Amino acid sequence: MFNPLEKTLNSLNLLNGLNVGGMDKLEDMVRVYLRIEGRVQGVFFRASAQEEAGRLGLKGWVRNCPDGSVEVVAEGEKRKIDDLVGWCHHGPPGARVHNVAVQWENYKKEFPDFRIRR
To answer: Of 64, 106, 117, 118, which one is the catalytic site residue?
Structure first.
């Protein structure tokens, strides 16, 4: 059922994780740290990860590491974070992912968007 008050509060971002009308609860929000190893630099992994995270509505960052791996920190809804983790297991065309280390963390609502760090 359409609830105009919920729509207004949601557009103003005033619900802050309250479960109103089936919206996700704050408990459903997570943060993940990923380290992706393999042929993941020089194949547009960072730009593709930024695009995928944006499509999923996630916040955080991605960067290349000196050892040839890629790091990702992402925050958002658990099911969408799971989708990003799954995507990181193969990455963009040209990537050859050998390992994805996953470390779950507490949601901090730290980031305004998803960026490439240099």
So the answer is: 64
